[in-house]
């Protein structure tokens, strides 16, 4: 079964727009879990435009499912934040400063030595590590020798191409997943997954352990309500 981790970045975006505490991020995380989500994902960025570093400490106190912190490990502040909170999983994303959203995976060949070192830091602290990668077989194979437990397949290209033809859109992801299985890596996925494209992805990617979904899910909740929406996403994964 593929697990759903709800990314609550966009709840923080809405909260921050007025400076108060509405919507209450901690309450939303608790409610997502109550509605069936099997994980909570946050992606604090250096400018704290949505998740603030302090939010992570508050969330750590109340999340009872899997807590997944995503971000750029080249920022020492991010490394310190993760080590101080010891989530179940850290997902390492090679963002550059000021990026609108994540837009590429790691070059696991060029960054092999760096990844080995930083992954060891988190693993020594007992934190499961996943690294964000494009659906490219060579990148997946080289991920295996970094010491990471899992990869997160960056699904923007799949989501973008899905309306033009789902078979072609998913083909590189199936190859990447098969390569991951061969080298013993767990498989997560995320970015731009939504109610249209999720079911086909989950049905066709072997051993997909987890999806993290934020932007579309929170947008859908405006129409369907958060409880219904979480359950609609969960139904795509059975
Ligand atoms: C790694 C990934 O795909 C997501 O974490 C995504 O980057 C969400 O971040 P934003 O909410 O800042 O767009
Ligand atoms: N790791 C992907 C994630 O957490 C959410 O991405 P998106 O659904 O906001 O595009």
Describe the structure.
The termini are close together. The radius of gyration is 17 Å and the shape is globular. It has one domain (3-236): Aldolase class I (TIM Barrel, Alpha-Beta Barrel). The longest helix has 17 residues, at 166-182. The protein is built from 11 helices and 8 strands. It has an 8-stranded parallel β-barrel, surrounded by 7 helices. By secondary structure, the protein is of the alpha/beta class. It binds 1-deoxy-D-xylulose-5-phosphate (DXP) and the ligand NCC(=O)COP(=O)(O)O.
Helix content: 40-55%
Number of domains: 1
Extended strand count? 8
Shape call? globular
The count of helical stretches stands at: 11
Radius of gyration: 17 Å
Order of helices and strands: EHHEHEHEHEHEHHEHEHH
Ligand set = 1-deoxy-D-xylulose-5-phosphate, the ligand NCC(=O)COP(=O)(O)O
Structural class: alpha/beta
Major sheet size, sense and barrel closure: 8 strands, parallel, barrel
The end-to-end span amounts to: 7 Å
Task: List the uncertain runs.
Answer: none
Main sheet: strand order = 1-2-3-4-5-6-7-8
CATH fold title? TIM Barrel
Determine the mean pLDDT. Answer: 97
EC number: 2.6.99.2
Keywords: Cytoplasm, Pyridoxine biosynthesis, Transferase
Family: Belongs to the PNP synthase family.
Binding site for 1-deoxy-D-xylulose 5-phosphate: 45, 50, 101
């Amino acid at each position: 079964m593929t697990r759903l981790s709800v990314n609550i970045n966009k709840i923080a975006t809405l909260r921050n727009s007025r400076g108060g505490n509405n919507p209450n991020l901690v309450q939303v995380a608790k409610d997502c879990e109550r509605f069936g989500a099997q994980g909570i994902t946050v992606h604090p960025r250096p400018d704290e435009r949505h998740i603030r570093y302090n939010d992570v400490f508050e969330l750590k106190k109340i999340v009872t499912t899997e807590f997944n912190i995503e971000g750029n490990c080249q920022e020492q502040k991010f490394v310190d934040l993760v080590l101080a909170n010891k989530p179940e999983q850290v997902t390492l994303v090679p963002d550059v400063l000021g990026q609108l959203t994540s837009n590429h995976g790691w070059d696991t060949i060029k960054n092999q030595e760096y990844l080995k070192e930083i992954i060891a830091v988190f693993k020594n602290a007992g934190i499961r590590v996943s690294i964000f990668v494009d659906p490219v077989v060579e990148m997946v194979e080289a991920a295996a020798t970094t010491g990471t437990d899992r990869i997160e397949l960056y699904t923007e290209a799949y989501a973008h191409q899905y309306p033009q033809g789902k078979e072609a859109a998913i083909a590189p992801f199936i190859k990447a997943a098969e390569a991951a299985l061969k080298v013993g890596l767990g498989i997560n996925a995320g970015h731009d997954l939504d109610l249209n494209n999720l079911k086909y992805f989950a049905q066709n990617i072997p051993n997909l352990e987890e999806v993290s979904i934020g932007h579309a899910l929170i947008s859908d909740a405006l129409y369907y309500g958060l409880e219904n929406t979480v359950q609609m996403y969960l139904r795509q994964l059975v």
